[in-house]
Amino acid sequence: MKLKTSEDYQKATEHKIVHKRDFAAGADPDLKKGCGHSHPKIGQARVGPQLISAAGYPTEKHRARTPDGYILQMHRIPTGVRTPRRSDSSKGKRAVLVVHGLLGCSGDFVIMGPERSLAYILADAGYDVWLGNLRGNTYTTHQNLSRNDKEFWEYSFHEHGKYDIPSMIDKVLNVTGLPKIMYIGYSMGTTSFFTMTAQRPEYNDKIIAMVALAPAVYMDNIKPLMELLIKRLNVPETMRTRGMISVNLAQNVMSTVIGSLCNPRSPQDLCLSIVYSIVGEDFEQNDAEMSSIVMARFQPASWRQLEHFAKIAMTGVFTSWEDGLWGQIRPYDLTNVRVPVTLLYGMNDQLTEKSQIMRLAEVLNSTGVLEDVRPGCSWPKFNHLDFVFAKDVGKLLNKPLTKLVNKLYNTYSGS
Length: 415
Hints:
The chain is of the alpha/beta class. It has one domain: Rossmann fold (3-Layer(aba) Sandwich), CATH 3.40.50. Helix content is 38%, strand content 13%. The protein has 14 helices and 11 strands. It has helices spanning 6-21, 48-54, 118-124, 157-176, 188-199, 223-232, 235-241, 251-261, 270-279, 288-296, 303-315, 354-366, 386-389, 393-412, and strands at 38-39, 43-44, 60-65, 70-77, 95-99, 128-131, 140-142, 181-186, 207-213, 341-345, 370-375. The strands form 2 sheets. Strands 3, 4, 5, 6, 7, 8, 9, 10 and 11 form a 9-stranded mixed sheet that branches. Helix 12 (354-366) links the parallel strand 10 (341-345) and strand 11 (370-375). The longest helix has 20 residues, at 157-176.
């Protein structure tokens, strides 16, 4: 955004301050159920719907129920604040479902504010934006099980694809009356999409096109890490035997760890060093004012999610979980993907690195569904987390991405 006058600068500065101050505001009753954590420096973090409302955007909560009993809260931004409200009729409406990655939630796509976060930018471009939540994070529950039941955590992205994504797609279609929607997935949100098309290929007919941000399908590059964690250290099973039934830290523990060990303004920060060793270093795009907030918001996950990724990494096959970690390899059938797919990767993404995205591109290209494969942006150090949390994510990724979504919609929607 180009600021031409001192008044423009003052308004922009005030808006940025207000959005960051929202994290320290008092919590409403939904907070304990939402994607927020306390932190000694920021007080009580606001959850997704609160942030959306505080930014001046309309927001709605919807719940999708899966056949196996999970209840998934979805957050909708039906219109932007910089575009006229679209007609309530289905004609002319453009709906897009955006789905988060591992340890994430719907709030990941609003946390950086209206000038940077994808949900706001899409809404201001005229889209009806739906932010999904996959089972396990704090926006999800079960009709019979509690989070203290080990059965609650017996899932991976196999179930995300079989149950969660289809249920959320159907919710969007039922509410909007549209026949098809756009899909944007980030990291595990792409994994879940591809497991959906493998198991539920009929859902191709409900998707206009799919954009995959840092797709996590082939992961040969992290085989040594997974062999260390799973084969040698057996971390998931060790944690289970000690009573830790999920990948989750209590809020007070998370706050203590972050407050004691993390100094995101320093290139030598221990927390950033650990994270960057996995996802790729990009200190230049680290927003020091936001990184503690981001880390404090990491969401619960199941050990099986990590084990399933480990099975894929160690076998070199995009395989189902059905026979367990050491069971038979059953490849997901990627020839079942029948919608145009665009793959965007980070040039310094060490978790889902370029070589693995190009392998996926070859498979999709062989069946004629590959629309494009390219870097998400021109910044050479763009890493895995930068897709949602980079300091300049709006300018580098999300504004050009919205133009891409427009192009895909106009080409394939049939309207």
